[in-house]
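Translate sequence into structure tokens.
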Amino acid sequence: MAEPVRTSQPAGPPSNELPNAGYLLESLVSDVHSLAQHVGTLTTMISASLRPDATWTLRSCRHLVHDDFKPLMLALRFSAQIGLGADVAARLTELCRQVGAAQARVVPMLRFSAASKPQRDQIQTLSVEWRRLASSASATLTTIEPFVHARLDPSYAEDLAALRVFLTQAADPGAGAADAAGIVKAPVLKQRRRVPRIAVNAACSLETPSSTHSARLEDVSRHGFGIVCDALLSAGETVTVTLADGRRLSASVVRSQRPRFGLRLAAPLSDCDPLFAGEARRVS
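Result follows.
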């Protein structure tokens, strides 16, 4: 199985502080939601490929078969600090393991442009396995529901409910969550950010190829910064942000509403980066 295309930013100076517990919970739940949608989609497509009127094969699913659970597994190491019970962390860890193993069994089916009778029999076996996995994922979402309701923005709870319905449909081959062309009726989630943002108020500098400007970080996520600066920046422009601790991070401008800019980091930060010791807040 191919390794995920995720790289880590240099860790920076050592910090004795763990990331804020609210940030870690929000990040963990975001990854769980992503995993649930992944399981529901792949389960639905495997089942739909067996329809007599199907016009496609599992080859079209090859972009879905990837191991992208490492950030979730990392967050689970802090389950005690987050406030999750050991049993909940164990169930999430086991779900990740099961999904990884199930995906490995899908891989041989991805190279065929048309399925023979023996291959359809194998896909039928896979479909049964994935429908069970979808049911297991739905049950696992139930275990984190109390934490989501009590500690996170209501949109996370609403998305959790929508994903449980999606997984239930995926577990039922007659639910019709995909059509003959493999178009999946996936839920539209309200919380679209994959990771939360942390509100900060930190001085930094921003460097373009031709000039350097004083700036201030407003918020940070693993993948980007919200920054205030008097520079004239255009979307797509590459810049370098120098933090107070001396780190120089490459980024590109994705939102330009001077003096506020949205930057996407060239390489994501670690969940344990010192910048995440602040208070988490949801940024729309």
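Note: The first helix runs from residue 21 to 48.
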